[in-house]
Amino acid sequence: MAPPPPSIIRVIDLETTGDKPPVHAVCEIGWQDVALGPDGRWELQGEGGNRLVNPGRGIPPLTMAIHHIRDEDVADAPYWHDVARPILDPWPRRVALAAHRASFEEQFCTPALTRGADWICTWKCALRLWPDSPGFSNQMLRYWRRPEGMEHERGLPAHRAFPDAYVTAFHLRDMLNEASVAQLIEWSSQPGLLPRVRYGPDRGKEWSEISEDSLEGFLTDRDEDVRFTAETELARRRGGAPVGRGSSTQRLLF
């Protein structure tokens, strides 16, 4: 009797007409699976894929200049509601969905389309696991880390759905081999924990290096990632439990 297929986390990437649905819509989706092997290690599985999508409206030149998908390329493509669910919900194998800066994809991939899937944001998890990186974009992590086994040409061109999903899948694979699924989901459900101050007189410093007066000034920042990081550092200084890799859920697999 053949063994059951392995559980997967499906990495997705969207190209869209803009960033504010329902005014904007999807014009391409790409995906790449990461599976748990019999040896307990996570690896990429399968060839992945992509589908062009008719967004039901014109693609602005501003976004065409990023992904180079034209109106004529998607004129005969299926609509989002016809292609989304089979790609986003490969039941029963899927454990979670993942994307780099997943909050963008979550706007278009609603719970109704994903069957209420958990999400892993590889950007937020990279902040936790690889804080020494000079930057945390998908492509910066690609060239700073140079993940083992990545085929350079397969990850090009950038800003197209499958190549970007393929690159993200390597980041996710390595994250899953450092921390549990439960831990990555937990981090992804919180704002980003920034390793360094983004702006102001203390720009570039680690948060532990700045004065408490400066730290308290960030508690009312408009950026929720900045506020969360400042609150976390302040709690650390005052003896609160750290928010980081030592969380008990990291020891869990699912």
UniProtKB/TrEMBL annotation:
Superkingdom to which the source organism belongs: Bacteria
SUPFAM superfamilies according to UniProt: Ribonuclease H-like
GO biological-process terms attached to the record: DNA replication proofreading
Gene3D superfamilies tied to this protein: Ribonuclease H-like superfamily/Ribonuclease H
Tagged with keyword Hydrolase: yes
Presence of the UniProt keyword Secreted in the record: no
Keyword field: Hydrolase
Exonuclease domain sequence ranges: 8-181
EC number(s) per entry: 3.1.11.-
Molecular function GO labels: 3'-5' exonuclease activity; nucleic acid binding
Record-linked Pfam families: RNase_T
A GO CC term assigned to this protein in UniProt: cytosol
Name this polypeptide is given: Exodeoxyribonuclease X
